[in-house]
Amino acid sequence: MALKSKADDFLHELMQTEASLEKIARKLELEFAERFSEAGVNPLGLVKRIQKLQLELPELRNECQGLIQRKQDLIDAAKQQLSMNRQRLHQLCMVSGMAPHDDSDVHGAFKQALQDWDAQCVAAQGSEVLAQPSVLNRNELNRALASSMLHKPAL
């Protein structure tokens, strides 16, 4: 019974201490707000904002990586569909006896855009990819590209 009484007293003391600390924290926040209101910058407000951003940053990184993955999936699907369509169009032209339309400039621009994207993915991994190109798959390259884009300093 005495042990339970002591535990209850201890919990009561902890709750009182927590209430006192919260009161002190509110008082300090008000003091900071008053002291720095003339300067226009509240250091406590900045610290809170930085902490909030630190909590939001991992979620934003995940969203960016997901977006880049969806972009890569779209690029892969478009590449496959356009290549199949182009091949089928040439086959139809051959069967019908018509000369195929010369779309080499458009097809070349499309291939160049895909090569540029792949080069960005490779550049994101740097020398690791060049040393061991078969080790990384497309998903790993996408994650690396997203990571490199997130860690670049703002200009």
TrEMBL record:
The organism's place on the tree of life at top rank: Eukaryota
Coiled coil spans: 11-77
InterPro entries tied to this protein: Ska2, Ska2_N
Main subcellular location: nucleus
Pfam families: SKA2
Annotated localization: Chromosome, Centromere, Kinetochore; Cytoplasm, Cytoskeleton, Spindle
Keywords of the record: Cell cycle, Cell division, Centromere, Chromosome, Coiled coil, Cytoplasm, Cytoskeleton, Kinetochore, Microtubule, Mitosis
Protein family (similarity comment): Belongs to the SKA2 family.
Protein name as it appears in the record: Protein FAM33A
Organism for this UniProt entry: Dunaliella salina (Green alga)
Source lineage: Eukaryota, Viridiplantae, Chlorophyta, core chlorophytes, Chlorophyceae
